């Protein structure tokens, strides 16, 4: 335990790192259960259908780049995935985005019912703080800094505000600035926080990291919005063209797909420039960011 | 700041303590806001309609009995009230208990809409952890112990499991033991945790306190269930006889009101016996517990 196995980055390479890191997240998520069957079944159903694990992978890779050991980051990586899953479960509810399909399977409220989705979403939010509070590797001072950051990121002035904007703009016009603000709040902040966690642990305050985090967070939402418009349901694992049908306000819908792709091209160049300045051109983080920019689903 | 004003219990007496303590909770809750108007309005609407503050008052009074200063407990007391409010906002949703009235006002989803109630409930849960993480009085080690306790109390094996049982028993029979287990999970645990917080802070592990906490938590639910059956909507501030109509399983419905009142009488005797053993017979905590047992709404 403890610091004995610092920096295992040599065990990762371009072809295996995603698989290795996702299997770490899976092993934490698979160990999560509830005592009662009526809670355990829907809880496991939701956690079993984990997605691409973008937030945990960014957390692990940033930690690796800073010399942290993966094992020490497991609870934080899982907490981020659980927190993200809570937001999806509630976002899919009929009174929200009303989606029947998520990650290729029936959404939780379709598989069970709405009350199950409300309660399991609530339990997942609780669980994310429990995973952090019960981590055995870092000092309580670090955990409180991370909890404080996460609550700001996801609370009434963060992700929740972004969700309110998203619903509001279904029936109202939005400027480019408003869409960018919404994207920062509902998506970018949590992605930035994934990378912030190892930075907080290491006490690293470099501006380059903050710039990189924001570029990745904003680009991720644009990529997601382009995919929603251009890919069929079978590829997406969720209902295609939902944004268009629901009159969602997204940058590709406002500016056109070509302009959005041009924006992404510039963002990618900026991100790789920073990666180079941080001397991470041979690090899996670089490959992963390149992959994100060329993601199709 | 700090420890300068330890134990202000002399400032409280039988007639003023509830007013004094509720005004402390109000001052924390009134200071809570959201940057964006579309979030701020429903957030304030919900927090403005705070209830009887049973959990904060029990927290403050237990703290006082242990020699803690109220000011140091403000964020924890508010966190408990905010957490309880999150559970009510989601519990009132149409897919849950479907209630139109709460604390004498329209429930949040009636006043706004379902998505607002889902999102504000979510934000309130987040806020409760933020209030604890940002407290300036106690060590991070204490805060992590409290967060850990709260997540266990309210998560998939605690309050959420109680809520699942509550919905399940609308369409299924329940034994007396199952109803008691449900009451512990959905109500008693959070009330016990309110009193646990000062006990954790002081490192106090006396069995008498644990017994007292359980008696109060279980009795509170029975009192609430009797009131639901016997008082009109105008007095309740919420729709009367909901339990009966929804075929909820409660102890007064299973055993009859007289048997439930007999149970309460025994519980009150036991509680006052413990209070006496703890040498708190002249403390406001005793008067408050007596009041709880004679509560009609």
From TrEMBL, chains A, B:
Record GO terms (molecular function): metal ion binding; prenyltransferase activity
One example of a Gene Ontology biological process annotation: terpenoid biosynthetic process
Pfam families: polyprenyl_synt
Gene3D superfamilies, per database record: Farnesyl Diphosphate Synthase
Swiss-Prot/TrEMBL keywords: Isoprene biosynthesis, Magnesium, Metal-binding, Transferase
InterPro entries cross-referenced by the UniProt entry: Isoprenoid_synthase_dom_sf, Polyprenyl_synt, Polyprenyl_synt_CS
Cofactor needs: Mg(2+)
PROSITE patterns in the cross-refs: POLYPRENYL_SYNTHASE_1, POLYPRENYL_SYNTHASE_2
Superkingdom field: Bacteria
Family: Belongs to the FPP/GGPP synthase family.
The name this protein goes by in its record: Polyprenyl synthetase family protein
Organism of provenance: SAR86 cluster bacterium
